[in-house]
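hi! just following up on the protien thing from before. the input was this:
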Amino acid sequence: MENGLVSPSEEGTPQGGPLSPVLSNIVLNELDQELERRGHRFTRYADDCNIYVRSRRAGERVMRSVTRLLTTKLKLRVNSEKSAVARPWERKFLGLSFTNQKPPKRRLAPKAMARFISLVRMVHDLAEYLRGWIGYFGRCETPEVLDKLEKWLRRRLRSMVWKQWKRGTTRYRELRKRGIAAQDAAKTAGSSDGPWHLANTPALKIALSNAYFASLGLPELTARG
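and the predicted 3d structure came back as:
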């Protein structure tokens, strides 16, 4: 986007497209080899990487040396806002984190949980309003109006979830997790179309189906025979 307006891409690769992680692996292969040579324990997915050391002092030293390697030798830019030296349970990786116990266990990262809870809370509040609304307007004899409104509500919720997923890699992973084929997931995640448009695509309709919203408690506006 340029100045808030979508314009055609003439260079680069779409965020979330299948080529992006391939290019990341090619470019960052040298980083992997260097970390292995140093004997560090690490995990990397595309351009996200966690390196595990025994102390904060060691972490700060590794952070400086790895940043220097990435910026000077590989000519890459490190996102300082998202990079930090911290305990494993204070950080997240691909939506997951660890518990502060022995042995540590994988858990949902607080931010990932907060996003889910926000959706659950929104559907809960919306359901309370809709039940009263349906009680008054549900007997109207123009059900096609209710059907259109019901479809709009679900599309609006899908659009909101798509915004919450934010990054292309997150969108691709969430679509795959919900049964979308790799090619369709990559095409949708890498699309330059806006959330409202994508919320009406087959991939999101399947990934965030009517049954999914019903399981969260979203009531139907029209009676089903």
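The first helix runs from residue 19 to 27.
The mean pLDDT is 85.
cheers
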